[in-house]
Amino acid sequence: MNETLPPCPKCASEYTYEMNALMVCPECAHEWVPGGADAAAAAPQERVIKDAVGNVLQDGDTVTVVKALKVKGSPSGIKAGTKVRNIRLVDGVDGHDIDCKVDGFGAMQLKSSVVKKA
Predict the structure, then answer these.
(1) Looking only at Cα atoms, what is the longest distance across the chain?
(2) Which residues neighbour 108 within 8 Å (Cβ) at sequence distance 6 or greater?
(3) Cα–Cα distances in Å, from 98 out to 13, 16, 80?
(4) Global pTM value
């Protein structure tokens, strides 16, 4: 093993090797260009979250629920056509990437795939 090769930026494996102009990790199969290009790829990039019909969503948008949703602990769910104002985009769990307050239900997270921009 050559001590001068950098570890894998994805899984931190020390068993990396060179293949032409690329560095390769045999454990996770990650390939990258050594040097500055990897630092630019590691920088956080702005996520683009789209609604059910492909419109780009932003913080503060108003959206409309496109299909009826069940809500735990509630005898009735959220009906299709319900407007939700002032959404906030988050890194949620299980694809729930919208944080909002729904009238009659309170604060909750929704998936962008069940709303459309109003």
Answers:
(1) 64
(2) 71, 100, 101, 102
(3) 35, 39, 17
(4) 0.60
36: left (phi over 0), alpha (psi -120 to 50) or beta: alpha
Domain regions of the chain by residue span: 1-40, 62-117
Q: How much of the chain is in helix, strand and coil states, percent to nearest 5?
A: 10, 25, 65
pLDDT at 72: 87
The closest alpha carbon to 13, from 4, 21, 22, 24, belongs to: 24
Please state which architecture CATH assigns to domain 62-117. Answer: Roll (2.30)
Residue 3 makes CB contacts below 8 A (sequence gap 6+) with: none
Residue 25: pLDDT above 60? yes
Nearest alpha-carbon partner for 10 in 42, 36, 35: 42
Strand (E) or helix (H) holding 40 = helix 36-42
The Cα–Cα gap between 47 and 30 comes to 22
